[in-house]
């Protein structure tokens, strides 16, 4: 794939001068175009959030923002490219739950994610919606847990791949309920949903963007959602409301920079991202594809990354998922 085919230049639209949103010490930032590296193909939820954020930052700063898709090696290739970039704040990684799970699943990594990247801000939350084939004789999460325990090994759930949010959400459900279900990994959320629609698997702990159209079309049954209700699907209860207190699983995206990035640049980036994520236009666009804006301070996002790494390490260990 050529660089031209995997890069989208977000046009500079003019707008608010940088001085109106940046700390005084960061007036010189950005000094050139900013690149957001997305370690996934175009069109997915992480990519969509990056494009909306990039467009708004471009407007605020009157500066070009490039979205560069660098998929491969389960999001490692894109992350490594940013790790090796100049730590000046102009090359950033749009990270995801994969980067918090990798230490527990991969035998070796070319970096230590928590130590070699600087947190900037959270970006988006992608709820997990428990979807069932219409033929499955359950109507809520409590009934699902009871049915799975009464029929060990007879239910299969599909995921977008080993170690992603849609896989680990299912493993968390199993660990909390004692359900015995088969995991069937697919190469992406779309193939997994196709398997559910064809009743080749009976369940999917689907990300919001994948689940919402099918739930709205009533081709699948939605049993519960995590972490919170969606305004576009207001009747779907949260997992605790549906009968599983304490359950919380979702996918997410955020922004990190290479280690050594100046604090002034991080502060400027965080301020711009926070503004972008709070704009009504952003909130509306995120909601349309089943996501929720998730602005955080750099410190809050750093604590979140650490907590996510620890949380999923326990789930992976309990599920006995082997390292690859």
From TrEMBL:
Coiled-coil features, chain-numbered ranges: none
Protein name: MFS transporter
Annotated keywords: Signal
Claim: Manganese is one of the keywords in the record: no
Family matches, as SUPFAM superfamilies: Periplasmic binding protein-like II
Family designation: Belongs to the UPF0065 (bug) family.
Top-level taxon in the UniProt lineage: Bacteria
InterPro entries cross-referenced by the UniProt entry: BUG, Bug_dom1, TAT_signal
Organism: Phreatobacter cathodiphilus
Signal peptide start and end residues: 1-26
Pfam families named among the record's database cross-references: TctC (PF03401)
């Amino acid at each position: 794939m050529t660089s031209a085919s995997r890069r989208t230049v977000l046009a500079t639209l003019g707008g608010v001068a940088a001085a109106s949103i940046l700390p005084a010490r960061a007036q010189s930032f950005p000094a050139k175009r900013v690149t957001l590296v997305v370690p996934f193909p175009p069109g997915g939820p992480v990519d969509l959030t990056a494009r909306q954020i990039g467009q708004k930052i471009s407007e605020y700063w009157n500066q070009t923002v490039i979205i560069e898709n660098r998929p491969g090696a389960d999001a490692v290739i894109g992350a490594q490219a940013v790790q090796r970039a100049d730590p000046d704040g102009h090359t950033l990684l749009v990270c995801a739950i994969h980067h918090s799970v990798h230490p527990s699943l991969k035998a070796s990594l070319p970096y230590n994610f928590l130590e070699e990247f600087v947190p900037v801000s959270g970006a988006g939350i992608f709820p997990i919606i428990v979807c069932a084939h219409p033929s499955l004789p359950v109507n809520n999460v409590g009934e699902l847990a009871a049915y799975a325990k009464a029929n060990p090994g007879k239910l299969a759930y599909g995921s977008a791949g080993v170690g992603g949010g849609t896989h680990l959400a299912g493993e968390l459900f199993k660990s909390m309920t004692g359900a015995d279900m088969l995991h069937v990994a697919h190469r992406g959320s779309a193939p997994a949903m196709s398997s559910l629609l064809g009743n080749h698997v009976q369940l999917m702990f689907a990300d919001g963007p994948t689940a919402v159209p099918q739930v709205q079309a009533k081709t699948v049954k939605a049993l519960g959602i995590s972490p919170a209700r969606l305004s576009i699907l207001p009747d779907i209860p949260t997992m605790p409301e549906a009968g599983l207190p304490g359950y919380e699983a979702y996918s997410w995206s955020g922004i990190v920079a290479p280690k050594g990035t100046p604090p002034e640049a991080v502060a400027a980036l965080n301020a711009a991202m926070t503004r972008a994520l709070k704009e009504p236009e952003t909130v509306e666009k995120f909601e349309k594809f089943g996501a929720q804006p998730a602005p955080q301070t750099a410190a809050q996002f750093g604590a979140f990354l650490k907590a996510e790494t620890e949380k999923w390490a326990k789930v992976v260990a309990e599920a006995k998922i082997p390292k690859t």
